[in-house]
Structures are given as C-alpha cells and as structure tokens.
Amino acid sequence: GFISPGLLSDCTVETCPILSSFYNYRIDLAPNVAFLVLFSVAVPWFAGVWLYKKRGYWFTTAMLFGLAAEIIGYSGRIISYNNQWNQNGFLIMAICLTLGPTFFSAAIYLCLAQIVIVYGPENSRLAPSMYTKIVSTPLTQ
User: Has residue 115 got a pLDDT over 80?
Assistant: First the structure.
C-alpha cells in the first residue's frame, strides 16, 4: 500500500516495504564496507607515491579528491544501511558517488599528454601540449 511521506521518517526495514525507501532495495553492508576500506587504503598509497616521486601534483590532487568523495559516498551508504528512509545518507551517497568518478576522469585526462608522447604525437589529433593547456595556464596574469 501507499505510505504517506510524513510517515516515512518513522520507517525501518521491519516496518515498511523496502520499495518505499530511497534505494528501492536492501543495501548490503559488506560490499560497501569493502569499498570504503579499499578507497581509504588508496589515499596513503597515492599520497606516498607522490611524496616519493614528487611528480604528478595535479594527477595526485585529482585522485585524492576523487578518493575523498568515494570515501564520503560509501560512508553515506553505510549510514543508510541502518535507515534507508533517511534522506541525509542518501544525499551524501548520491552526490559524492557521482563526483568521485569525475575527479578520477580528470586525473586520467591529465595523463593523456604523456600517453600521446609515448605512443607518438602522430597518433593524436591534438598536440600533447594541448591536453593540459587549461590546467597549466595561470589563473591570474
């Protein structure tokens, strides 16, 4: 049956149909904890490689922002496990798990110039210097 939106704040897995939650399915805790742990372990790994190599500042920055978004997003899913009708956990998950891959894509984009150099500029429609032109341009003159 239909449940009034005002009553959804009082819902639990035992008292309301799962289809009335924000997710429409029961969240499984184990994979979300596993992803949270994996992304958390990746943070010191990326930071450590950057500190050791002192190269790829923008790549590492974009990756760390992506990892932070993923960690917060999976934390939101874990928060939602206890109450799938709580809008806060859902919004944390939806926003951060959407932004995380965006930062990962930006990090990969920053590597394109080096990839073109390795495989030959003749194999690219753009010169290697064009890929990161926006990032390397000073914001102030």
Answer: yes
